Amino acid sequence: MAAHTQLLMHVTPEKFYFQPFDQQTDAHVMIIDRVTGVNSLVQAKDLVLPPPVETLTIHGIMGIVRLVAGPYIIVILRKSKVGDINHHTIWKVEETRTFSYSRNTMHLTEAQVAANTTYLAMVESVARTESHYFSYDYDLTHTLQRLDNTTPDFVTMPLFERAEIRFTWNAYLLREFTSQPELAPFILPCIHGFVTIKKCVINNATFDYILISRRSCFRAGTRYYMRGIDTDGNAANFIETEQIVIYQGQMCSFVQTRGSIPVYWAQRPNLKYAPKPSILKDNHLNGFTRHFDEQILTYGKQVLLNLINQHGSEGKLQNEFSRVVAEASNSMIRYEAFDFHRECGTKRWDRLSVLIDRVSEELKQMSFFHMNVKHGCVSKQSGVFRTNCIDCLDRTNVVQSLLAKRSLQMQLERLGILAVGEQLGTTPGHQSFEWLYNNIWADNADACSIQYAGTGALKTDYTRFGRRSKKGMLKDGWHSTVRYFKNNFSDGFRQDAIDLFLGNYQVEEGEGAAKPCPIDNQKEWRVFLMPIILLVAFSMCIICLFIPSDTFQEQLIYILFWGAACLLTLGYVVYHGEEFVDKPKLVQTKSKLD
User: How many other CB atoms are found less than 10 A from the CB of residue 538?
Assistant: First the structure.
């Protein structure tokens, strides 16, 4: 059952009306009572709108979130077409708007108004984040192979009922609609990640190349506040990436996954450029087993590609990861460690072929999903590569793009687009596709990185051009600097925003009045005072350097005094770094961290 593709939203002082744009005589209009919150349906022909009315065209409903002032509904104002998958159009959310059920905030205290404004800013910041995608009649949350494994009745079910809960980012926001099956045409599941669809030509054969990355909404969050796994086995920054080729009624799909190192560990920001990861004292095997029991059930055999450094602070993680893999002793898991930075140091990026060659046999054995419209399923993918580095971003994306390219070579040969032995990318005439392929994977890297770390990915010059460049390294330096400031000074807010959007934290009625509001917690006075002292001391030191005193001795004393004040204050701030970073404030997030 497809969802409505366009709606007229009529806003009155008492109700919201959502009218299908197609104006069918038997169409139903959904009405939301702004006072009681009750959802109901009436036939379009019976609709009577009481004045005054504000009418706008919307492209879907993202859902409802309850804040201090009451419920808010989030609607999609603008969308852009990404492309078509088997005649089903895929859309990207470009702009959203939030409407309050309450007409004013006069029933709130001043503190509650401030809290409600902060909560609303959190929700809108996540809704505004790029890379929310949806379709009115296609299930974006599932891979082609999972869709093929379903019954004929599955495709007749409403989109929200068949959506994969792991990747439905607005599942919590839709809960007030999903309890009423009759509202199914108004319910629109969205994924968060990356989708691109391109028409490509190789050897005069035109085919669709599609790349979909689905970000899990379990243990979702920001770079330093979500690491490792939780007690249910959910891994931080878990993303399922599917490469699809569609050609003359045939479809091929190759799936990979990435996710944080599946043990209990943390890496809290503390003003240092690279905080040391800490391994938590828990039974890692239990969480590891839960994680891979689900992964094996869903994807089959797991080939774990661990790209972190095998020495230094990352080395302890690598040792613990390999120890738990050995302790688990699961025949469906193969572990392959590859020290990316050591192997590819001094621009030796050709060394990546060593890793790809090591796992080439598994790549052939797990194959890929291949379906012929006329004859059904031809082959299935029997396992996945699960790749990780410390962030599961930059190094991970480089390796995933190389594995996908090897699989694509086999897919195009199977489809007859490439002759047997004809190498993709090395044969004249493939340059335009090679350029397109590299840029698609670099764009995927940037999207995944922005969602987790706050900036575009590093090392994308290699993905785009096949080599590292000075411009690319300068760009990496800029992104690393921006990451540092965002991870230390804004990720607490961003983590809270994600938890609020996903329902990990739910605002309670009366919060800020009858009950305490967690975002009202103020930092200690020294958190504000010490940076001011540092700024004043540094400024005075600069002034003393450039404005001469009566004697050189007097000037030197001033410089030494303010310089010492500057160094002492800086040392205090660095030593107590964790107190000065932006931390999450919502209760559920704190319990996750602890």
Answer: 17
